[in-house]
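queue> pop job 88
queue> type: inverse folding (structure -> sequence)
queue> payload:
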């Protein structure tokens, strides 16, 4: 199965989840996603997702000066983003549970 297609459908949720407890800048968010096991996530996909979530009103941004290079734009969840995370997580859990049941009923999941 091509995990990149699955990733496209859940990248918004993954980014919101990564930002749940701690704000982050683009590369930091990408690193956290990859360290969580989403190795196939691309740079452009994450930056595009951050822009889209910001435009949708789910994220706030602020700039932090850096002594070692350009300033970093940090992203954080706001109330709208937390609500979206909660709604999307509920949808995900329902979907994943349904898939687990389908697979288990057919003896394909141990």
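queue> result:
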């Amino acid at each position: 199965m091509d995990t990149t297609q699955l990733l496209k459908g859940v990248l918004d949720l993954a980014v919101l989840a990564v930002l749940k407890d701690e704000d982050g800048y683009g590369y930091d968010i990408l690193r956290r996603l990859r360290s969580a096991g989403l190795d196939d996530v691309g740079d452009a996909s994450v930056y595009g997702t951050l822009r889209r979530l910001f435009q949708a009103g789910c994220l706030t941004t602020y700039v932090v000066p850096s002594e070692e290079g350009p300033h970093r734009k940090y992203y954080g969840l706001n109330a709208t983003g937390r609500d979206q995370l909660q709604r999307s997580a509920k949808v995900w859990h329902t979907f994943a549970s349904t898939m687990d049941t389908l697979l288990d009923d057919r003896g394909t999941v141990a």
